[in-house]
Each structure stands twice: as structure tokens, then as C-alpha cells.
Amino acid sequence: MTFEGKYYNGQSSKGMPAQIALLPHGLQIDYWAGEAYGSVHWEVAGIHQSEFNDVTTLLRYGKFPQQSISVVDPGFREALQQQYRGAAFLKSGYSSVLGMGCAGIGALALGLLGLLVAFVVWGIPALADRVAMHFPESYERQLGEQLYTKMLQGYQVNDEKTAALNAYLNELDTNLDYPITAAVVKSDDVNAFAVPGGYVVVYEGILDKMEHHEELAALMGHELAHIQNRHSLRAMARSLSYYMLASVLFGDVSGVAAVLVDNASALRNLEYSRSLELEADREGLELLRRNELNEQGVILLMERLQSGSESEMLAFVSTHPNTGDRIKVLNDLIGEKKQSIKENPELERYWKQLKR
Q1: Closest CA to 2 of 38, 28, 24
Q2: What's residue 153's pLDDT?
Q3: Measured between alpha carbons, how far is 78 from 70 in angstroms, rounded to an integer?
Q4: For residues 270 and 118, what is the distance between their CA atoms, to the nearest angstrom?
């Protein structure tokens, strides 16, 4: 049985008129290219399904560059089914799905829905996290400045204590890749948070709870670790990933930054995973060691916060959970080894200004 169609040799996009014969072991294709005549044989095992519809059949053959044929004849598909019954290239994926029945199609649909839900719940935030990890530092600093400015609009800044806190930070060896800018805001809340790009906001309420400047150094080390390791930026990106995705989908790439800035207030309520909190704790402890300050400062800070009243602790505990577990880990890290402690009159002086 012979059918008329077009033959494509895989090297030219131009189809050549062809006669296609169905032989027992494959297709015999005789084609004309201008005045030239050619003939190829396709073994059944090498034929690949391309497309079947009510009128046109497209088949491919071999490896790259693949040959192909196109036959506009509804009888061609029926002839193929009769001649090569059970051949792999005749098994339509669409037909396979229909053959699954209602229960099978329902299960497939549920599986696809599950994959979609999994991508929305875990995939999009994870993608936003990876994007945040690769932000250029200059862009992060610019974004952080906008977030910091926006954030402070809702607070009254204590200028005298802000100057003292920045002087205190300048005296510390912070080992940070970013220039540091900090502000002390007038609030009784026991809280502090990091802003991407090297910015920190500290509430007067948490300063009032402290009795030793090593506690402040531990707190600053903790918050600066969130900045250095981009915990704040990543947490914001994850929590706002759906808004950011919408900005990208609608072609407003600059809207990504706008989404973050418009949600600057989310910074004070960011929650970090247990592993990120412990990482920040370890680096806070390392800051004390690097500056030869009493390592117990980090333990005193944690214990003081843990012993506060429920109203005092509400803000800090909501964003820094598992305080008891973290104290145990920090005590294990400190161990019994005696550490050299060096007096630092400058840090003491700035600390006194903060406690006025």
C-alpha cells in the first residue's frame, strides 16, 4: 500500500514530494528533489511518533538530524495501525491517558495538582531564597538603605544613644563586609532586628534590660551575623516571594525592590529557622572572643531575656524562639576553657552613654 506525502531529510527545511510504501519491516520512501530521485528505508524500530490528528500524520526517524515525513491522508494512520500493530511509535500518549479510565485520570490529575501545590508552597520560596543569596552587595546596600529609612519613619530616634551605639560598634572588631549603621529608637519593646546591607535597629527596651556591655556586644554580634549571612534578606525574600513572583510575571522587575521596601515593617517580625538562629548565636559568641570580651555576655543576654515578663518578651521571643535550647548550645561552645579578657575603656564609656 502506497501513500503520497512530503519527505524532509533533516538537513533542509524544504519538504520533497514522496511516495511512501508500507513494507513488512518498515517504510520505503521514494522522493524527488527537483530532477534528482532518492530512496530511503525506515526500519520500524527507528521510527518515532511526532503527531497524529484526524487528517495529518507526522513521523520522525533516526537520530539528530532526524528525517521526517508528513502525510495528509486519514487512511494513512489506519494503514499503519494494521501493518505495524503494537509498534512503539503508534502508542499515543494521549490515548494512553484515555486508556487509564476515570479513576486513572483522576489520580493523574491529583498527582499533578500535588506537584503544583508543592511548587507553590516550597518551590517559590526556595527560588526566592536562592535569588536573594546572589544579590550584588552594592544593590543589597542600596535596598537596605531604603528599607532602613522606611522603617525608621514609624519611630522616634534617640539621637544621643544612636551616636553612642554607632561609636560602640566602630570600636568593635566586627569582621563585617558591610559598613555598619545603627539606630536606637524610643520604644519599651524588648527587641532588635537586622536590616539587609549593614543596618541595625535597636529598641531602648532591650538596652534597659541589659546590665553589662558584653550583652550588647553579643546582641550586636548576633544581629550582624544575620546581615553578613544575608539571613534578613533571604527571610524577607521567602516571606514575600509570591508578591515578588507576581511583579516578575507582570513584567515589573523593578517592582521586586518596591515590594520589599513597601513591606519594610516585616523586618521587625522576621522569623529565622533554628539553624540560622544558632549560626547567628555562634558568630555573636565569636565576636566576643575576637574582641577579648567576657563570653558569658551572650549567656547573660539570653538568660535575661528568658526571665522577662510575658509582655516584655513577646516581641523578642516571637522572632527568636528556642531560647532555652540556644543557651545550652552556647554553654557547650564556651565549655570550661578560660578565655583571656581585656578591659576596653572606650566600650565602657559608650556603654555608659547608652544607659543614661
Answers
A1: 28
A2: 87
A3: 15
A4: 23
Q: Is 198 helix (H, G, I), strand (E, B) or coil?
A: coil
Cα dihedral 279/151/354/213 (nearest 10): 0
CA distance 58 to 48: 9
DSSP state of 53: -
Q: What's this model's pTM, rounded to 2 decimal places?
A: 0.59
Angle at 169 between CA 164 and CA 170, to 5 degrees: 95
Q: State how beta strands 199-203 and 192-195 pair.
A: antiparallel
Distance of CA 34 to the CA centre of its chain: 57
Per-residue model confidence (pLDDT) at position 278: 87
Q: Which phi and psi angles does 257 have, rounded to 5°?
A: -65, -40
39: cell is 530512496
pLDDT at 316: 45
The overall longest dimension of the chain from CA atoms, in Å, is 101
Nearest-CA neighbor of 353 among 192, 134, 167? 167
Q: Collect all residues with Cβ–Cβ distance below 8 Å to 242 and sequence separation of at least 6.
A: 124
